[in-house]
UniProtKB/TrEMBL annotation:
Keywords: Cytoplasm, Disulfide bond, Electron transport, Redox-active center, Transport. The keyword Membrane does not apply. The lineage of its organism: Bacteria, Pseudomonadati, Pseudomonadota, Alphaproteobacteria, Rhodobacterales. Has a glutathione-disulfide oxidoreductase activity in the presence of NADPH and glutathione reductase. Reduces low molecular weight disulfides and proteins. The gene is grxC. GO terms for cellular component: cytoplasm. It comes from the Bacteria. Belongs to the glutaredoxin family. This is Glutaredoxin.
Length: 84
């Protein structure tokens, strides 16, 4: 299974939804909370080109945010991406 990294903040509903989907699928992920940590938010922005959370990577693939994660799930593409 590919490693999953998700940049989040504590009070973000989209972050909670994305983490819930991954957890329901039994996917372990590394969570990086950028709340109150401008250096981590800057790192996320440099890697993704985006300033909103969540930002999700599966392996080396930048998935995007919560909507993109759910789009992958609904289209049947999330499991193959997770499997590598």
């Amino acid at each position: 299974m590919q490693p999953v990294t998700i940049y989040t903040s504590q009070f973000c509903g989209f972050c909670h939804s994305a983490k819930r989907l991954l957890s329901q699928k039994g996917v372990a992920f590394d969570e990086i909370d950028v709340g109150g940590k401008p250096e981590l938010r800057q790192e996320m922005m440099q890697k993704s080109g985006r300033h909103t959370v969540p930002q999700i990577w599966i392996g080396d693939t930048h998935v995007g945010g919560c909507d993109e994660l759910f789009d992958l799930e609904y289209s049947g593409k999330l499991d193959p991406l997770l499997a590598g």
